[in-house]
Amino acid sequence: MSDSGTRPLDTGSAGPRESSGGSLETASAALFSLGVLAGIVELFYRPFLFAPVGLVIVLSGALTGSKHRRLGFVAILVLALCFVIGAAIAVWRSRALY
Length: 98
What we know:
mainly alpha; 3 helices
């Protein structure tokens, strides 16, 4: 007799969980990317306006998923560096900060 008759049947219940987790991870990566975009925009245009918005976007991405932690770390670094550099440039050129 063969052992193939004693194998448990795959019900496919892991499929939907993996796909929904994958879509949450994709949404998390998209939010991190939007945070990086907000950091780049704040470098050139009103840093005190876009920094809080970018921070909220990155934090919501961090709460959404945990697979892309490095991208979240990079997004926070980009936000912080662009905020400091953008604020310094705005003060130096006497432009509006917010």
